Amino acid sequence: MGFQVENLEEKNMVKLTIEVSAEEFEKGLQTAFNKQKNKISIPGFRKGKVSRQVVEKMYGPSMFYEEAANSIIPEAYADAADESKLEIVSQPEIDVTQIEKGKPFIFTATVAIKPEVTLGQYKGVEVEKVNAEVTEDDVNAELDRVRKQNSRMVTVDRAIAMDDTAIINYEGFVDGEAFQGGKGENYSLKIGSHSFIDTFEDQLVGKTAGEEFDVNVTFPADYHSENLAGKPACFKVKVNEVKVEELPELNDDFASDVSEFDTLDEYKEDVKKNLAERKAKSAESEKESKAIEKAVENASMDIPEAMIQYQVRQMAEEFAQRIQSQGLSMDQYFQFTGSTADKLFEEMRPEAERRTKNALVLEAVVKAENITVSDEEYEEELKKMAEMYNMELDKIKELVNEEAAEQIKKDAALDKAVKLIASEAKEV
Predict the structure, then answer these.
(1) Mean pLDDT of 137-142
(2) Which of 118, 127, 318, 400 is the most buried (most CB within 10 A)?
(3) Beta strand pairing call for 105-112 and 212-218
């Protein structure tokens, strides 16, 4: 196998032209045939008994090209990427340029490489001081939050108002036909939550339990289901119950129910203490974020779009995993929210760009400051992991391979760079 590297017009984008020998391509074709031969049916031959020469004579050798290419490309690309010593920071965009039996197999892989970062000022940057004082309003807001956590839903005998929860049956129709996913029974709908399309929730205000009526709405023009997008719909709705959230009274009994304290005053003091600790941590975190933001503003780099898109895809995969852990598929998420994959990518792009710039600048600071992670500091990182996963330290050490150990050390070094930039920052 051989390869060539070509710098493209867009800075920090390169094209690898990778050539696989005709002999290796022939092996790929044979492997492809072996995988498919039991599925090939030719009159006069039993399945699995026909020779490759016969198949190629009837259908041409190209019928195995795609399978062969798919089997060859991953390893050939990985070998070329490794030998090139390039710091590749995107998924490759593959394009086959020559594929023919008896000839070398040639394809290109267009990739982004890590850009050079020119650091500006990163020590002594000015950041706005964050107020970490705990006010009475903060304490009251926290108490209200805990009250909401301990609230209960109570049925009321009156018309629906904003912020009530309506328990409804509904069925939607477009052009007089019921559509998939448009029906529900005993559904709890918080009025004003905007979880249903258009003015659906507004049209429930003033209705009472037992009422049956029509709700007329229009699906958004960019709704994910093309057969519904932009169309008017009629929902047949019945209100089963009207419920309101009832909060517990703020007294000593409440304090003893939700905490280890017997009186409300003691509980308030503890709430104030915990808020102070949280605000202090939050203020430090905000200071770090602002200091890094200034360091990034002062640096210069040419980030290829492919690098940002790679980060977007990683974020989207993490998001999908979180959604699936809540029992929803991404299709269901898009249906409920009216969003699309393209919209999600677009919304994630600014954060992806921020993360990419932050990482590049912090890596540059690690290099400029010659920041290293000692054996003792590495051990501390492993201890944190053991606590996080509730595992024995020795077990963590068994699970951490060489590659993972390098990543842990790299992350620890980046964290030291964050602390350095924040500690040198001037609060104004």
Answers:
(1) 96
(2) 127
(3) unpaired
Give the DSSP letter string of 39-62: G---TTS-TTTS-HHHHHHHH-GG
CA-based nearest residue to 80, from 112, 116, 107: 107
The Cα–Cα gap between 10 and 8 comes to: 5
May I ask the CATH architecture of the domain 152-246? Roll (3.10)
Determine the angle formed by the axes of helices 264-298 and 402-424, rounding to 10 degrees: 90
Query: Structure pTM?
Result: 0.72
The CA distance from 169 to 183, in Å, is: 8
Residues 181-213 have pLDDT tens digits of 899 999 999 999 998 999 999 999 999 999 999
pLDDT at 427: 92
Q: In Å, how far are 142, 188, 242 from 168, measured between CA atoms?
A: 32, 7, 9
CATH topology (fold) of 264-427: Trigger factor, domain 2 (1.10.3120)
d(CA 81, CA 92): 10
> Is the CB of residue 355 less than 8 Å from the CB of residue 289?
no
What is the secondary structure of 64-85 as a DSSP string?
GHHHHHHHHHHHHHHHHHHHHT
Q: What is the pLDDT of residue 334?
A: 87
